[in-house]
Amino acid sequence: MTKTVFVLNGPNLNLLGTREPAVYGSATLADVEAACAAKAAALGLALTFRQSNHEGQLIDWLHEAGREGAVGVAFNPGGYTHTSVALHDAVKAIKVPVIEVHISNPAAREPFRHVSFVSSAARGTIAGLGVLGYVLAIEALAALSDRP
Ligand code: CA2
């Protein structure tokens, strides 16, 4: 049976490519999805790619990935990264690996972005590599799932 990798995106990432290109680059979320789809297909994985501006929706999708036994989740929590105990708890609650992905490098930005509530629950974090970060996260999740 084909295994599925989830890519979940949080608030405002639907606006990617429309503003702040110096910070986030010029790729749109559709471009990110296309890059993820190509990587998933190359690895023989199905892709579930979603974006929501709502915290509870992201929590429900994390639970869904866990219930379905997904290969894992590449998760860009957007601004909720820096505020959400509920997302921390949801990432911790599911048994599948979650890799936190950030397009920019929050550690090199404003002090309020230096704290992540998600990092300590995630399997790992990729930040500052632009859209490539999503592709690398999918590759890492596939490699982790192939390990004995
Ligand atoms: O670097 C990232 O991927 C972030 O998760 C993006 C979040 C930000 O709050 C985090 O600190 C770091 C913001 C997403 C908003 O994305 C936009 C992109 C272009 C135009 C408007 C919003």
Average pLDDT: 97
Task: Classify the helix fraction into a percent range.
Answer: 25-40%
Q: Ions, cofactors, ligands: which are bound? A: ligand CA2
Strand order within the widest beta sheet: 2-1-3-4-5
Question: Oligomeric state of the chains?
Answer: single chain
How many strands, what sense, and barrel or not for the largest sheet?
5 strands, parallel
CATH class: Alpha Beta
- Total tally of structural domains: 1
Give the class from helix and strand content and strand pairing. Answer: alpha/beta
Short structural summary:
The protein is α/β, with parallel strands linked by helices and 148 residues long. 37% of the residues lie in helices and 18% in strands. The chain has one domain: Dehydroquinase, class II (Rossmann fold).
Output the keywords.
single chain, 148 residues, alpha/beta, Rossmann fold, five-stranded parallel β-sheet, 18% strand, binds ligand CA2
Structure characterization notes:
With 148 residues, the protein is of the alpha/beta class. It has one domain (4-145): Dehydroquinase, class II (Rossmann fold, 3-Layer(aba) Sandwich). It is 37% helix and 18% strand. The protein is built from five helices and five strands; from the N terminus they run E-H-H-E-H-E-H-E-E-H. The chain has helices at residues 21-24, 29-42, 55-67, 85-93, 132-146, and strands spanning 4-9, 46-51, 72-76, 98-102, 124-127. It has a five-stranded parallel beta sheet with strand order 2-1-3-4-5, with helices on both faces. Helix 4 links the parallel strand 3 and strand 4. Helix 2 (29-42) packs parallel to helix 5. It is globular, with a radius of gyration of 14 Å. The chain starts with a strand and ends with a helix. The mean pLDDT is 97. It binds ligand CA2. Ligand CA2 is lined by residues 12-13, 15-16, 18-20, 24, 76, 78-79, 81, 102-104, 106, 113.
